[in-house]
Amino acid sequence: MELHGWAAPGYDDSGWENAGVVSAPGGALRSQMIDPIRVTGTLKPVSVTEPKPGMFIVDMGQNMVGWCRLHVNGSRRNAGLPAARRNAEGGRHSVP
Predict the structure, then answer these.
(1) What is the pLDDT of residues 38-83, one digit of tens each?
(2) Which is nearest to 61 in space by CA: 25, 91, 29?
(3) For residues 43 and 70, what is the distance between their CA atoms, to the nearest angstrom?
(4) What is the pLDDT of residues 5-42, one digit of tens each?
(5) pTM assigned to the model
(6) Which residues are CB-contacts of 93 (< 8 A; sequence separation ≥ 6)?
(7) What is the pLDDT of residue 92?
(8) C-alpha dist (Å) from residue 32 to 28, 29, 35, 36, 40
(9) Phi and psi torsions of 76, nearest 5°
(10) Cβ atoms of residues 61 and 50 within 8 Å
């Protein structure tokens, strides 16, 4: 449960407890012996729908892990309008 406004300047944190001192974890710190993470492919959408004017749902056709690169083209009259992106899994999205 996040406290509203906790990250804003002037937030009253006087009721917070101080951080406690604990013992360091035991064992030896070792790197993970795995292959480095690399880009292995680029996907294009399998479909794009517009459930409401100006709102688009882009279906990539699969669940995935990675980064999203979004290229937007539009008219000069729409320049400066906000663009937002939200991820959803398996079609479990809600259209506000």
Answers:
(1) 888 888 899 999 898 888 888 888 888 888 887 777 787 778 878 8
(2) 91
(3) 12
(4) 999 999 999 989 999 999 999 999 888 888 888 888 88
(5) 0.50
(6) 57, 86
(7) 55
(8) 12, 10, 9, 10, 20
(9) -60, -30
(10) no
